[in-house]
Amino acid sequence: MDDIKIEELNLYEILEVDIKSTTNEIKKAYRKKALQCHPDKNPDDPSAGKKFHQLSKILEILTDEAARCAYDKVFKGKQEAALRHKELDSKRRKLKEDLEDRERKAAGKGVSEKTADQKLKEEIERLRKEGSKQVEEEIEYIRRKIQEEQEQSANFSDGTKYRIKIKWPASKGDSTNGGYTQEMLHKFLSKYGDVQALVMSPKKAGSALVEFKDRKAAEMAVDFEKGLATNPLTLEWIGAPPKSTNRPTSNLVKDSDFESVTFMKLRQAEERKRLIAQMMAEDEET
């Protein structure tokens, strides 16, 4: 992906900034664009990686004073030439092109343009060898930002996906509740995976809610668990069944993040209790 022809691109137009924009304005525009086209946020777009790489190369040029100066010289020269070219009609344009071609061959005209192009290429090569600390910092910023978004989405969304309603035949006055206790239900269900919460209705016989930690565990419970042969269970998803996700997870937590992660888990537990209680209340009303 190092075949990007910087000299042929309008870097300011791609970032949607003005040629007079400051370095901070350019970084801000880069972050906005980079977050939109990052490969992790566009797994179905095969060109996402190339777009992100191009943005990083653009940032590298426009945040390096010498490289930006060399690019601006070539860019402005081409703009001025294009403007002059546009002002000529087709016949005069052809005559002008022929004349300029003869002049270059005869007297070596156009040396300054070649020098400007060559200077830009030299600056691009220098950056390729030296690298850019500013670009590395911005790429790291984008990586952290996307990771935060993914973790936040996982923490506050995934937990709500794996809730199941459990029913079984039981009469209102049955002191045995159809033969099921909370401990018995937990034993039946936990063999499929971690049970995050299990609540039996205190008023409605033959009714409970369970929340699994993992999608696979919840799916297997719905598909296979029947409970007692003499009084089978019926398990149904609360809402639509969750779609399969392939998001990678990490078990590594930095010491500096432990406190915030612990607090987040506590908030999730409280929210889970509130939601389950709410669903149980709605279930009892039916």
UniProtKB/TrEMBL annotation:
Q: Using the UniProt annotation, give all residue ranges assigned to the region (Disordered).
A: 94-117
Q: Where in the cell is it found?
A: Cytoplasm; Nucleus
Listed SUPFAM superfamilies:
Chaperone J-domain, RNA-binding domain, RBD
One record GO biological process: spliceosomal complex disassembly
Q: What is its main location?
A: cytoplasm
Q: Name one GO molecular function term.
A: RNA binding
A matching Pfam family: DnaJ
* CDD domains, per the entry: DnaJ, RRM_DNAJC17
GO annotation, cellular component aspect:
cytoplasm; spliceosomal complex
- Keywords per UniProt: Chaperone, Cytoplasm, Nucleus, RNA-binding
Instruction: Please report the stretch or stretches of sequence annotated as the J domain.
Output: 10-75
Kindly give the PANTHER family that the UniProt entry links to this protein: DNAJ HOMOLOG SUBFAMILY C MEMBER 17
Protein name per UniProt:
J domain-containing protein
Instruction: Tell me the classification of the organism that encodes this protein.
Output: Eukaryota, Metazoa, Ecdysozoa, Arthropoda, Hexapoda
